[in-house]
UniProtKB/TrEMBL annotation:
Listed Low complexity bias regions: 390-407
GO molecular function annotation: FAD binding; FMN binding; NADP binding; NADPH dehydrogenase activity
PANTHER family: BLR3436 PROTEIN, NADPH DEHYDROGENASE C23G7.10C-RELATED
Species annotation: Streptomyces typhae
Record's protein name: Bifunctional salicylyl-CoA 5-hydroxylase/oxidoreductase
Gene3D superfamilies per record: 3.30.9.20, Aldolase class I, FAD/NAD(P)-binding domain
Span of domain NADH:flavin oxidoreductase/NADH oxidase N-terminal: 412-516
Region Disordered, residue ranges: 390-412
Residues spanning the membrane: none
Highest taxon of the lineage: Bacteria
Residues covered by the FAD-binding domain: 133-329
A Pfam family the protein falls into: FAD_binding_3
Amino acid sequence: MRIAVIGGGPGGLYFSLLARQFGPAREITVWERNAPDETFGFGVVLSDQALGGIEHADPAVVSGMRPMLARWDDIAVHFRGTTFTAGGNGFAAMSRAALLLTLQRRCAQLGVPVRYSSEITDVDALAADHDVVVAADGANSLIRERYADAFRPTVETGKCRYIWLGSDLELDSFKFYVVDTPGGAVQVHAYPDSGHTSTLILELSEPSWRAAGFAAAAPPRLSPGESDERSIGIIAELCKEILDGHKLYGNNSRWLRFPTVRCDTWRHRNVVLIGDAAHTAHFSIGSGTKIAMDDALTLARSLQEQPSTRAALAAYEAERRPAVASLQRAAQASREWFENVDRYTHQEPQQFAVNLLTRSRRVSYASLRRRDPTFIARAERWFADAAGGPVAPGPASAPGHGSASDGTSPPMLQPFTLGGLDVVNRVVIAPGGAAGVFPARDGVPGDLQLVYLGGAALGGAGLVMTGPVSVSAAGTDARGGAGLFSGEQVSGWRRVVDFVHTHSPAKIGVRLGYYGPDGATKPLGELRREFAAAARRAAAGFDLLELDCAHGRPLSALLSRMSLTPSADRVRRALEVFAAIRAVWPAERPVSLRIAPAQWCPGGHGVDAVTGIANEFAARGAAAVHVCAGTRADRDVYADRLRNQAGGKGAFAVIAAGSIAASDVDTIVLAGRADLCVVDQPTVDSPWLALRGTPDRAISKSGHDGGGCRAP
């Protein structure tokens, strides 16, 4: 088998030496456009886990790397004069030049020729003359461009500007600095790349970039290898407290926007993409080199193990694509967090540090606790003080949760005041989908509602919510749901409410909506009267009333994709229904708004309009917005944005729902992405149940609002 490798970066060289080891009879040649000592950039980061994988595949590579590695365990967040450090992370870095030298030497030992200063201009001819062509030519891959019709690439350009720099500053750990400037926050990612040098990446939004003077300083054009020295001078002054008199220098350093590359396929005939040529992941998760080297290992093994080249390339892509997709999702979340860092600078430094460390959604409260219990204990103490909650130890039986080393209860068990309503913890149970519509003869709630909601309250939830409750007989779902339009129904609900209040500290809320088939033609005046009448009946016992604008007709239609502007007439009509409820509902009890923005605008494209709509309702007395989302990504976009809008000065609480496991609640509320969480599918072995010492039969296994928020 003859193999041609285009690109002598870490991915191309590592693949070549592994392919040589796995199949000594192969003829492998690497073509690299640059000279052997010509490379750009600075430090390359690898986790201890990544290093272990490299060592397992070829111990000689790690042996060559080890003397040049700078290792650290801590990640420090410097923000507003504070420093919060989380340990237990296990990372190392070395200069890109040193890594390439190590791989070049290993290739030489194994007899793999590398043709430097050689650029391939005729890929078709190379492919015709070889069994496999491996394109490892980076994010700006010419091979990917040559066969774009086959690979079908997309490139999403990030919003922030960033520049890659080096310094003789000696660091002992990874450090995030957030520097306040008149134009906005500037973030600095800094880490050691040897015993005496460090890498600094400066990143900032376009407005901040312009306000800091870089637009005027940056030259319109730079020669290959040339650095933007004027910008480096401005940065040195901007970061003088960080540098503490140390030098800052460039290496082909200029302002860039990060390109996220994705391809529909990574193979075309006998040509295959690896590393950045196939996919990229934002530098803030430090996985670019790891992904490329993992690609290289998988491809080399597939070529060894599979019966044909075609089968090998297919097996390589099938194995690597899910792992790469997962890392790209994490990288996108991290990139978007930094692109919107100004949204979070209102947070207290301790919360900001937790938010930053968990930004990719791959690091959770639980994993931070495992890595550094002291960091989490400090965060828990801050959160408990802010919430005015308990600091006594929780039950030892709580699996995976429990209390911190100083006895502070975890964030999910801290209290919250929702529009004057004191809730004992942050856990909400709200049935949805088929589980939310229990059989109710003539709309009267029966034993099933009592067992379900009473069990949730006994299980320890701070707030339990009914399923859909119709305001009129005509507005009842055809399958038969509960209502609040008759005296018998009021008595049935009184039985449920009294049970919850008598046997638990939980609060109970009612979700009012109109779910009938004629909702689209229902006159507004009649809707207002029906909702107001139901609200008066609910006031006989419920602690909270929720207006369901997520499902059912016509309220969900009033806030549909076609009307996503706060001034729209449809929004005004929904506000009138809300006002009719608020006018008759006791002033001391909260009203919440239930919305499903992801159904109106998937992917967060309507987040600004949804925020405007929520603010309109808050201005008229909504104490909370219940963000119903079918996926974690949609939940993160909408709930987080509503919670952290306008410097964190939103006039309402945010209840997040959408694939939330009990173990996620601590992370979400501690990082400030929501105030309360609808837990997805609590069962007898859920950690929050164990925290409350619940009997094993308190709640049955069933679906809940967090899982999909489907229409009843």
